[in-house]
Amino acid sequence: YNNYFDNKTINKNIDLFLSRTKRISEFVDGIHLTDNVLGIPIVSSLIIVSMLKKMVIAKPISCTCRLYDKNLISVLQFVTDSIIAGVYSILILRGDEPVIGNKIIDIPPTKIIKTLSEHNFNNFIKLDLSFPNRIENSAKIKNKLEARPRAFVTQSISSIENLKAIVDVSRPFGIDVIPCIMCPSKRNEVSAKNIGLDWSSYVNDPEKFIHEAGNLTHKVLLCSPNSFEDGLDLVKRLKKN
């Protein structure tokens, strides 16, 4: 977002994204599309989903639904459009406050999950909730468990022990856990620092750490916010092992 609309740049970035998605789809089991990260407006993830479908990207695609820039009607529209577009799952979270305009909704994601389930959406698309990378606030955790999402998608983790604790809490409720793990590379150091992530426990052997996490949860969400090539290299190494 640069205070003006630049159609040429947007289309150039979309083409780059689509080509990267095609490259990485050979090595992963699914693709997750974010939504207005840091409150910065970007092209709708559902537009990208439709483009990926036309490219015959057969891998399951999940999307993030940020609540801060939506009201209840637009949330229902987003979920309905996601179902029609063939989205596999939606991650519901508050998100960052928008860089322009005011936040529209301040309803907890847990309540949105309950509302969507009450209206039968959960029978047509998987509904997920964000989850901290460690258990600290028992009251908030209780609310998340009571919402009964399909899965908890964690913030970036750096501790297998913390992940085990999350799995132990979630399992009795039949809730899956999908740990998010950031690719530890020089170009991602700024992002790690910004969220307070200390990856010293796995920086020297990320493949081992990811396999340990995967053995606990069967699914892992990998991110490499500042370098596509670093992330691609990591998933290629994981595929070989």
Tags for this model:
241 residues, alpha/beta, TIM Barrel, 7-stranded parallel sheet
The CATH level-2 architecture is identified as Alpha-Beta Barrel
Strand content: 5-15%
Largest sheet: 7 strands, parallel
Structural class: alpha/beta
Helix-strand string: HEHEHEHEHEHEHHEH
- The CATH topology label is TIM Barrel
CATH uppermost class: Alpha Beta
- Please tell me what the overall shape is: globular
* Tally of separate domains: 1
Mean pLDDT: 90
Strand order in the largest sheet: 1-2-3-4-5-6-7
| Proportion in helices | 40-55%
| Oligomeric state of this protein | single chain
The value of Rg in angstroms is 18 Å
Describe this structure in words.
The chain is α/β, with parallel strands linked by helices. It has one domain: TIM Barrel (Alpha-Beta Barrel), CATH 3.20.20. It contains nine helices and seven strands; from the N terminus they run αβαβαβαβαβαβααβα. The protein has a seven-stranded parallel β-sheet with strand order 1-2-3-4-5-6-7. β5, α6 and β6 form a beta-alpha-beta unit. α4 packs parallel to α5. The longest helix has 18 residues. It is globular and about 45 Å long. It starts with 6 loop residues before the first helix and ends with a helix. The mean pLDDT is 90.
Topology (SSEs and partners):
Elements lengths: L6 H18 L6 E3 L11 H10 L6 E6 L5 H14 L3 E5 L15 H10 L7 E6 L6 H10 L3 E6 L3 H11 L5 E7 L6 H6 L11 H12 L3 E3 L4 H13 L1
Parallel strand pairs: 1-2, 2-3, 3-4, 4-5, 5-6, 6-7
Helix pairs in contact: 4-5, 6-8
